[in-house]
Amino acid sequence: MHKKSAYLIGIKGVAMTALATYLHQKGYEVSGSDVEEEFQTDIVLQEQGILVKIGFQPANVDRTAEFVVVTGAHGGMSNPEAKEALKLGLPTLMHGKYLGSLMEDKFGISIAGCHGKTTTSAIIASLLTNSGLKPSYAVGTAQINDLGYAGHFGQGKYFVAEADEYMTCPITDRTPRFLWQKPKLLVITNIDYDHPDAFKDIEEIKKAFIQFANNLADESNIVICQDDRNAVSIIPYLKNKVITYGFSPKSDYRIEKIYFGDGLSSMRVLFKNTDLGDFIVHIPGRHNLLNSLAASVAVNLVGLSWEDIKINLKKFRGTRRRFEKISEINNILLYDDYAHHPQEVKTTLESFKNWFPDRRLIVIFQPHTFSRTKTLLNDFARSFKEADIVIFSDIYPSAREKLDNSISSKILMIEANKYKKNSHYFADKLTILTYLKDYIKSGDLIVTMGAGDIFSWQKDLIRLIKNQRSS
Fold first, then answer.
1. How far apart are CA 369 and CA 398, in angstroms?
2. Assign residue 61 a region: left if phi > 0, alpha if psi is -120 to 50, beta otherwise?
């Protein structure tokens, strides 16, 4: 019997690769197209034998495809391949809409929030999987370390997915992507001002979250972080039951007695006045304790016992590009992280300092998009205080925006140095490597950070570190 086929335009993006993996495991012949640039997902697609055509040409489109899915990253429905698919009469959907349709026949668990979506989604997927519930999931990273690929077709009734507030298609459909999802359980980790090209201010973002939450069926539960002022502010406008978590004494589920060190973090959790005991995770930071508790509350609501959650939470080992250890050579640690918003940068650097208080922290930061860097410039400038040295590379532009000469990494460096004189600017990788050659020493912790292609610098950094003498 001939396999059904699916064609994905912009297949290398983490969300699209997770979907490609899900469809491949479901039995589809999957192929797609993208740019030539190296992506962290390349290996995921290669290992599964998923064909990726380079460039966007009408002739690339699989005319036998049962359907075509399009990313918003490369023109969305204005992409020449999307136009060709529609011309051929192939069912053609934006990624956000198609992902929402996959959840319709399942018990959907959606994780929304401007930060923490990926980690919280991955923990939920891990807890459900390690409890034998065989969930499907689509998580926005290349890999969940204890599970493997970040997309999975499971036989169970649960479907776990990130719920992104960004536009469905920046050119042809400004609908927030998460509005296509109608889960039975929703987690909101936080609400922050991001995507200035999509939202004019924080109030507009909050309205989108309220609309999403109120699209849910009446019996649905909503889990919200009590510590986040913006998230809490929308609770009075929500029709469904809300369960809160956080460090705040007002939380239904409250974190107490935290500990960081020796490659683990722990927290004591109370439900109202009931002590649920100690929970251990192998990821750092207060923000990840919040993510872990959010995930734990979510899976408890669908039936997992607290004892099983405690056991399985220890199995979670993080995801690709989130506090990811790359190497340890000559007593120099190299890590990589996806943080690209000021709040993410701040909390991630605090986490590194929690786990490695005695190491000199060197951060190589690649700002992502002109619009975000410009709009959040003052917040970015204040977010690097925990670092000993910050090196800014040039801004990595999105394919969806135009050059803006009114903002640059040099401007960001000048602003950051007003708060702590620890920042430098070098335009490109070669100049940065040349600077580091005479600067790094035994005991250092180097972190590459950003949502662009900075992860691809690792081979050169490892080569550089290997050439350093231990001292």
1. 5
2. beta
Burial (CB count <10 Å: 0-12, 13-18, 19+), residue 455? buried
Sign, CA torsion 244/245/248/249: positive
Convert 137-151 to b/e letters by CB count within 10 Å (16 or more is b).
Answer: bbbbbbbbbbbebbb
Model pLDDT, residue 470: 45
Closest alpha carbon to 179 in 207, 158, 145? 207
Q: What is the pLDDT of residue 468?
A: 74
**What is the pLDDT, as a whole number, of residue 469?**
58
Separation of alpha carbons 42 and 11, rounded Å: 10
> Which residues in the chain show pLDDT less than 50?
470-471
Looking at residue 320, what is its pLDDT?
Answer: 78
Going by their DSSP bridges, the two strands 107-112 and 158-163 should be labelled as parallel
Residues 9, 76: Cα–Cα separation, whole Å: 9
Structure tokens at 178: 């998460």
Residue whose structure tokens are 């460039």: 55
Do the beta carbons of residue 156 and residue 134 sit within 8 Å? yes
Strand partners, 198: none
Amino acid 40: pLDDT: 85
Contact by Cβ (8 Å): 281, 316: yes
Helix axes 117-130, 306-313, angle to 10 degrees: 110
Please answer whether residues 142 and 321 qualify as being in contact, where contact means their C-beta atoms are separated by less than 8 angstroms. Answer: yes
Give Cα 96 to chain centroid, integer Å. 15
Cα dist. 182→140, 218, 301 in Å?
A: 19, 11, 17
Structure tokens at 2: 């001939």
Residue 203: partners with Cβ closer than 8 Å, 6 or more residues away:
none
What are the beta bridge partners of residue 253?
Answer: 245, 271
Report the C-alpha gap between 285 and 378 in whole angstroms: 24
Dist CA 428 CA 55 (whole Å): 25
Structural Rg of the chain based on CA atoms: 22
CB 365 within 8 A of CB 384: yes
- pLDDT by residue (tens digit) across 277-307? 999 999 988 999 999 999 999 999 999 999 9
